[in-house]
Specification:
The chain has helices at about 35-40, 45-70, 90-105, 115-120, 165-175, 180-190, 210-225, 235-260, 275-285, 305-315, and strands at about 5-10, 15-20, 25-35, 80-85, 110-115, 130-135, 140-145, 155-160, 265-270, 290-295. The protein is an alpha/beta fold and about 325 residues long. The protein has two domains: about 5-120 and about 300-315, Nucleotidyltransferase, domain 5, CATH 3.30.420.40; about 130-295, 2-Layer Sandwich (Nucleotidyltransferase, domain 5). The strands form two sheets. A five-stranded mixed sheet has the order 3-2-1-4-5, with helices on both faces. A five-stranded mixed sheet has the order 8-7-6-9-10, with helices on both faces. Helix 4 crosses helix 10 and helix 5 (about 165-175) runs antiparallel to helix 8. Bound molecules: 5'-O-[(R)-(carboxyoxy)(hydroxy)phosphoryl]adenosine and zinc ion. 5'-O-[(R)-(carboxyoxy)(hydroxy)phosphoryl]adenosine binds near residues 13, 269 and 273.
């Protein structure tokens, strides 16, 4: 069978990324241009700046990717991009660039949901088997999804308030750690012990999550200690927080796997780069004889390779988009 090359673009937040993916599995070349150094100065992503920087960088990033792959735009079988969810202005840059490439080279245009991309990061150099449960943990989402086949996504539960990554970023702010907070909180947690008592997490839905109470508790704890003239142990606070987040994710994932009698768990999204969370979920899966998959760290945080991997599934199903497609800031799979 002829090989399929898809050029994929990801611009949903603060990474301008392009990738050429062969048959949905092989990363031929990927470039990720991160804007973190700029947004860091403001303590978080500034949407207007993000879209301007995507505009400045997108052509350069595509050109670099083609050079790295030693390929030409004419060699591509389709052009794909993230169309939702994300920052509107940022998404539009990737979307319009991709439509233009598709129009000029007369090849299919494929629009990909960013969360499908995160899930399909697990299919790079790998063969997923169904049914499976996907635990998606990113800066904007925390979802437990049952997949009975490669295109069916049944939401079992989601966060009722903050996403996991968002709560990591907020706790980082309490600890005066720079954006993005997740990796920095993880570094602190490695040095600490779980000495601080954290609140119980209660949700009505069996598979739902809630992290805003935990974040408020950390803020109050730091504030109260300061008022009393005490110095908070920042390493222990990071460790106590990370422990309870990981426990919550593990409990809900284990419950879903048992209730639906599913033998495969896949973890994905930016927070899946966290070693402690990866290990805890892995241990739970080993204990229950569950197959556990998590992408390489570079495919956990935002990248275009995962968009190319997901686009291939849509390509096989001839699920092509037309040029009237618009960006959407929030939409489920
Ligand atoms: O998937 P992603 O790159 O962007 C979104 O789609 O949101 O996820 C970014 C989130 C940020 O909140 C970041 O702090 C978090 O992932 N993150 C981590 C780690 N690496 C990234 N959180 C905890 N530990 C990490 N090592
Ligand atoms: Zn993401």
């Amino acid at each position: 069978m002829k090989d399929t090359y898809i050029l994929a673009i990801e611009t949903s937040c603060d990474e301008t990324s392009c990738s050429i993916v062969k048959n949905g599995k092989e990363d031929i070349a990927t470039v990720v241009n991160s804007q973190i150094d700029v947004h860091k100065l403001f303590g978080g992503v500034v949407p207007e700046l993000a879209s301007r920087m995507h505009l400045e960088n997108i052509t350069i990033v595509i050109d670099e990717t083609l050079k790295k792959a030693n390929m030409k735009l004419e060699d591509m079988d389709a052009f794909a991009c993230t169309y939702a969810p994300g920052l509107m202005g940022s998404l539009l840059v990737g979307l319009e660039t991709t439509k233009t490439l598709s129009l000029v080279y007369n090849k299919p245009f494929i629009k990909v949901n960013h969360m499908m991309g995160h899930i399909y990061a697990n299919n790079i150099n790998n063969d997923l088997a169904y049914p499976l449960i996907a635990l998606v943990i990113s800066g904007g989402h925390t979802d437990l999804i049952l997949m009975e086949n490669e295109t069916s996504f049944k939401y079992l539960g989601s966060t009722l308030d903050d996403a996991v990554g968002e709560s990591f970023d907020k706790v980082a702010r309490i600890l005066n750690l720079p954006y993005p907070g997740g990796p920095n909180v993880e570094k602190y947690a490695k040095e600490g012990k779980p000495t601080y008592k954290m609140p119980e997490i209660n949700t009505k839905g069996k598979y739902d999550f809630s992290f805003s109470g935990l974040k408020s508790h950390c803020i109050n704890l730091a504030h109260n200690e300061k008022q009393r003239g005490n110095v908070i142990n920042e390493f222990d606070l990071a460790c106590s927080f990370q422990n309870v987040v990981s426990k919550e994710l593990t409990i809900k994932a284990e419950r879903a796997l048992k209730d639906f009698d599913v033998k495969t768990l896949i973890l994905c999204g930016g927070v899946a780069a966290n070693s402690f969370i990866r290990e805890e979920l892995h241990k739970m899966c080993d204990k229950n004889n569950i197959n556990f998959y998590v992408p390489e760290r570079r495919y956990c945080t935002d990248n275009a390779t995962m968009i190319g991997a997901a686009a291939y599934v849509l390509y096989k199903n001839k699920n092509f988009a037309d040029y009237s497609a618009n960006a959407e800031s929030s939409i489920r799979l």
